[in-house]
Please model this.
Amino acid sequence: MREDEEIPIETATLPLDAWHRAKGGRMVEFAGYWMPIQYEGIMAEHLWTRENAGLFDVSHMGQLSLSGDGVAEALETLVPGDISALKPGRMRYSLLLDEDGGILDDLMITNEGDQYGIVVNGAVKWEDIGHLRENLPDHITLNHNEDYGLLALQGPKAVDALVRLMPEAANLVFMQATRATWQGHAIGLSRSGYTGEDGFEISLPNEALEAFADALCAMEEVKPIGLGARDSLRLEAGLPLYGHDLSPEIDPAEADLGFAVSKRRREEENFPGAARILGHLEDGPPRKRVGLTVDGKLPVREGAKLFDGEDEIGVVTSGGFAPSVGAPIAMGFVPTGLSEPGAAIAAEVRGKLVHCTVTAMPFIPHRYVRKQGA
Model:
């Protein structure tokens, strides 16, 4: 090997790799791991999750724990959310920002009482860990919990299935979390997910994953679901995917994620890129992430150019056929002046222009179980 050649990085395997293959999972490389893209087929798995309960293996994601005096305040130097106000057992979606306000990752932060749990995207987890270690005070302890896997059980019947194994699941509502045990194993349980459906994420030791997955899939409501349906489900729910709809070149206002910048933090103006982000929230960003419905049956994929007449105005960042909608849909970035629902634009597909309409997201209603009155 020459000195200027890069050492090849071997694709990693999930703790449940053999389990997926035994279930008929077709494995593909994603975020540095071999992951199941489908079992029966993307369309069938998508619709099953919308109607029943789908089990997703998301163990490629990074599960981190932060502890130490003033850890919430330290985190607030890197994210725009009000972490100090987060009560024990509560979760918050937030954004890891670079110094200019660009999005390094989107993540979930949970107040676990004695520490804060953070789940970051698998494709950038090592970069996130490096950024946190470099920018947090030395007395803050960061642990990467590599000995734990993460499963997501999603769909309207997820709670019916999970309570048979973990009765405490019924006591949670959307964005609440708790600690529990299963067959002597310490479990982290939250009512959350990324499909737009009710559901749960379950963090458990690697050695317990197979038995837990088997116990769930033995129930008539539950089937294993692959990466393909996970992507179409989150697209219908209007949820961005890091590395596609989010990147360091995009700030929270452009990404239409202004809700992640809390009221107190806006008033204090003390988070990375505050001047840029607050200016965009006040006056409108130059471009904005929008939903698009597509005329006809031809899917509009990531990378397709968007046009207003003959003028190229933006790009599609996620797109495909939406099984629950019954038509192609997409997300992309357009000038803010063309971001209102009803705006007519076009996407270039195979050298031809396809008519699209800017549409409010989500494409189908979220079905989270919230606290009454919330």
Q: What stands out?
A: The first strand starts at residue 12 and ends at 13. The chain is about 20% helix and 35% strand. The radius of gyration is 21 Å.
